[in-house]
Amino acid sequence: MKRALLFLPLLVAAVIGVVLFWGLGNDPTKLESARIDDPVPAFSLPSLQDPSKLFSEEEFKGKVALLNVWATWCPSCRVEHPYLLKIAKEYGVPVIGLNYKDDRQAAKQWLIKLDDPYLFNIFDEKGRLGLDLGVYGAPETYIVDSEGIVRYRHVGVVDDRVWKTILEPRVKQYTNEG
Amino acid sequence: MKKIVIILLALMSTNTFAIDTLEFDTSAQRVQFQVLTEELRCPKCQNQNIADSNAPIAIDLRNEVHRMILEGNNEDQVIDFMVERYGDFVVYKPKFDTSTYLLWLGPAFIAFLGFIIVLVTARKKRLPASRTASENELSQEEKKQLNTILSEKEKV
User: Fold this and answer.
1) Which of the residue ranges A15-19, A22-26, B83-87 would you say has the lowest mean pLDDT?
2) Domain membership flag for residue A60
3) How far apart are alpha carbons A43 and A35 in whole angstroms?
4) Is residue A98 assigned to a domain?
5) Checking DSSP bridges between strand A95-100 and strand A54-56, what pairing results, if any?
6) What's A87's domain CATH number?
């Protein structure tokens, strides 16, 4: 019994070691969204293309979609743009844009120049919906299920690896569930 | 020279608040604002509070705190509003609940454990000292053995 007790510190050190080692792989700048499993917050915001057209949270119901937060002032958004085009056009997953604290003209130009992957774009000039969603920097990409419930948030650039390993399996899962 | 020193000191003593031109109705509201913005953590620049940071998101959150205070919300309401959107991460002092109890009680528990260990080891140490003197002395048999061992050593 006494001998066994001598191994206790080793055991404790091993446990702490495993926990800390696991922590090494975590990126502290990627926060889990507080909105997971909540409905998309209520909003009423104009379309980027047509200021007279208003969107609400109802737009998210009926299909699993990606909600991509982007802006022309965000360099990483330019990096991920080709992948969004691929996801929307090749893989056929609807991508809804949240144009976040941006300039309307610049954003429209961007979509003409770089092509438009979005089903439609919500123009959130003041960042109200962004704040309600808990957006803390662009780009962010959310998975919203067919009930309009936020299921996942990815912070940072979406690329092939992120799509294949993180987003696609989840989109498939929620599509099958819905 | 003296002037330069005074200016430098003045610069150093100004606190690091990112000053916005925010107006308040009462000085109590101003104090409330300062307390809250120091308690809320910036989600983007993670080791700064939102009073300290100039990241756009921190500016937005400050404006939001300002708006809520002017609308008459109390501190708990503002904190709840932020936690609802940004999670427990935004508060430096998380609430006590099922996911944070380890954080709150862990240190006290470990201190308690240490105290117990100290107590137990201290007790064990005291036991040998309490042996009677006769127990510590060698018996005739043992003395003989000891002598033989010692004399053998000498021969070698």
Assistant:
1) A22-26
2) yes
3) 15
4) yes
5) unpaired
6) 3.40.30.10
> Which residue in chain A has the smallest CA separation from B44?
A136
Residue A172 covered by a domain: yes
CB contact at 8 A, B78 and B67: no
Residue A117 · residue A91 · CB < 8 Å: no
**What residues of chain B lie within 8 A of the CB of A31, using their CB?**
43, 86-87, 89
Give the pair of three-digit tokens for residue A109: 């130009």
| Domain boundaries, position A145 | 35-177
User: How many separate domains does chain A show?
Assistant: 1
Which pLDDT score is estimated for B126? 75
* Residue B133: pLDDT over 70: no
What is residue B128's DSSP assignment?
A: H
Measured distance CA(B33)–CA(A56) in Å, rounded: 32
Q: Which two tokens stand for residue B94?
A: 């998380």
Determine the length of chain A.
Answer: 178
Mean pLDDT, rounded, of chain A: 92
Concatenate the DSSP letters of all residues of A1-63 into one string. -HHHHHTHHHHHHHHHHHHHHHHHTS-TT-PPPTTTTSBPPP-EEEBSS-TT-EEEGGGGTTS
Contact residues, chain A to chain B, C-beta under 8 Å: 28-29, 31-35, 101, 127, 131-134, 136-137
The reply to whether residue A136 touches residue B84, judged by beta carbons under 8 angstroms, is: no
